[in-house]
């Protein structure tokens, strides 16, 4: 396991769907990743609480989508008690010092990345791979974070072939857009989480049971 290159994809996964899987496998192939970890957020204050399924249901939906793929589903932020992404990433690096990490995000997240707590520090912690999303690319490029990161742009091939590990680094990934979205799935099936009732799932990184924890906020990015 030492020296593995891990992609980190954070989100609500409310629910997880085939688009998450497709993006992850594409990033793995483009960047030469060994695995992708899906960081299922216990709660994201940047998104409305209404319609947010319990953590256990979201984890179970993610595990179903990740089956038979080199993807691990984790809610490790619940154990780390981290409220900001910068704290989560630093804690992961301390806990897994022999692994190397790449932060994966969609262009929609890059467009608001400058609102996140210590976003420049996040960029200095590990390379960031941004996956194009229809309708967001222009806003992402014009955003303060997009403009700042532009000077650190690196091709996927350059990233794979680079002898030294360094950050900041911005790798832009483009592939055929995937129309699937969690919002569309929730509208079509508002009670989707009911299918994932039952015993608590196990975390695929820590191997601990994952329990619902109402009121715990993670990935709280905007400075109060």
Explain this structure to me?
The chain is of the alpha/beta class and 224 residues long. A six-stranded parallel β-sheet has the order 3-2-1-4-5-6. Strand 1, helix 1 and strand 2 form a beta-alpha-beta unit. It is globular, with a radius of gyration of 17 Å. Helix 4 runs parallel beside helix 6. The chain starts with a strand and ends in a 36-residue tail after the last helix. 35% of the residues lie in helices and 14% in strands.
Q: Secondary-structure blueprint of this entry?
A:
Elements: E1 5-11, H1 18-31, E2 35-40, H2 55-65, E3 71-74, H3 76-80, H4 85-95, E4 100-106, H5 107-111, H6 119-125, E5 128-131, H7 137-142, H8 144-149, H9 156-161, E6 170-173, H10 182-188
Poorly predicted ranges (pLDDT <50, ≥5 residues)?
Answer: none
The major pleated sheet works out as: 6 strands, parallel
Tell how many strands the DSSP assignment holds: 6
Series of H and E elements: EHEHEHHEHHEHHHEH
Rg of Cα set? 17 Å
Q: Oligomeric form of this entry?
A: single chain
Give the % helix: 25-40%
Number of helices: 10
The chain-level mean pLDDT equals 89
The first-to-last residue Cα distance is 39 Å
Q: What order do the strands of the largest sheet run in, or round the barrel if closed?
A: 3-2-1-4-5-6
**Into which percentage range does the β-strand content fall?**
5-15%
Q: What would the principal axes of the Cα set say about the shape?
A: globular
Please identify the structural class as seen in this structure.
alpha/beta
